[in-house]
Specification:
single chain; seven-stranded mixed sheet; 24% strand
Length: 336
């Protein structure tokens, strides 16, 4: 395994300045990540002079209707950064554990890996393993913190770097990076921002560990809330709810799994919309008050929800105007 070179592959003048202002001579890092959310963190470590000794990701897997095998995204990123990569079929097995121990890592950095690590794996690095979680812990432990946070109407979220323990997302907190949630921001947009913020947070955390300045604060477990995986059925729109609740659901479910509704015998995904005051408040929830280029106004339990983008099931994302021009909508049409 090659030795760690912290000044390698500097891509920008800003990254070069950051790397030359900080020199870690002994810290050996193993990075665990799967999927595109982990890639900004991997790049941030590399660009700030903190190149991992090894990148660990899941094996290549089939995707799509044809079940073609595709290269894992983190593997491709590691190759682009000239970093060694392992894809153990059984990361919890003895063979990989011995490989991990042989590296004599100082710290494991884990982000969106998708595998529950054993106590033996957690104990392999000198400083244990740290994780960047996309919520302000102890709020929203679990698989879907971004979607659940928006759905519940929070105005702020962030990244929490914690020490990993065997209990899910319950480890002591090392540092927190906060960010406001935009009033129209959906889960996909927030996810992109939090992925970048994760990289910033992990660079700070690793530097603190290397300089002996890290401190950990236990979570208040009595305040813990949970964010289990969001399933397709969680995205069904209930038009009897106030329009603000419909808007939160749409934003939290976009782009996946989508906020769903039906019109006649067809299913549609509402991609974007806005809340408008209903001056009369006489409409039946789900009924269309108006439909035109500016949007499709739908009556709710309180106020109107104006759909501005919508897609048929298995169709393309289109503006409300495109939808109205391409579909015959009866005067008494009602979403439900």
């Amino acid at each position: 395994m090659p030795s760690l070179r912290f000044a390698a592959n500097v891509r920008t003048s800003a990254a070069h300045a950051a790397a030359t202002s900080f020199t870690a001579r002994t810290l050996r890092i193993v990075f665990f990540g799967t999927g595109d959310f982990a890639i900004p963190s991997l790049k941030a470590l590399q660009e700030n002079g903190l190149s991992p000794e090894l990148v660990v990701t899941k094996p290549d897997a089939p995707r799509g209707r044809g079940r073609k095998i595709y290269d894992a995204e983190v593997k491709l990123a590691a190759q682009d950064l000239d970093l060694p990569c392992a894809q153990p079929a059984d990361p919890r097995g003895d063979e990989f554990l011995e490989q991990l121990r042989a590296l004599k890592p100082d710290v494991g950095v884990v982000i969106s890996y998708g595998v529950i690590l054993t106590s033996e794996m957690l104990a392999a690095p000198k400083h244990g393993m740290i994780n960047a979680h996309a919520s302000l812990l102890p709020l929203y432990r679990g698989a879907a913190p971004i979607q659940r946070c928006i759905r519940d109407g929070h105005k702020e979220t962030g990244i929490t770097v914690m020490k990993i323990t065997e209990e899910l997302d319950a480890g002591d907190v090392m540092l927190v990076e906060r960010t406001e949630i935009g009033s129209t921001e959906n889960a996909g947009q927030l996810r992109v921002r939090l992925a970048e913020l994760s990289g910033k947070a992990l660079v700070s955390a690793v530097r603190q560990l290397d300089q002996g300045e890290a401190s950990f604060t236990p979570q208040d477990h009595s305040r813990a809330t949970f964010a289990p995986k969001v399933e397709k059925e969680h995205g069904v729109i209930d038009w009897t709810l106030p329009a603000i609740e419909v808007d939160l659901l749409v934003r939290s479910m976009t782009p996946k799994p989508g906020a769903q509704t039906r019109l006649g015998n067809k299913r549609f995904i509402v991609m974007e919309g806005t809340v408008e005051q209903d001056l009369y408040g006489m409409g039946i929830p789900g009924a269309l008050q108006s439909a035109g280029e500016e949007g499709i106004r739908v009556c709710t339990g309180k106020d109107l929800y104006r759909i501005t983008r919508i897609k048929p099931d298995n169709g393309r994302n289109m503006t409300a105007g495109e939808f109205v021009r391409g579909h015959q909508i009866a005067p008494d049409a009602r979403f439900g």
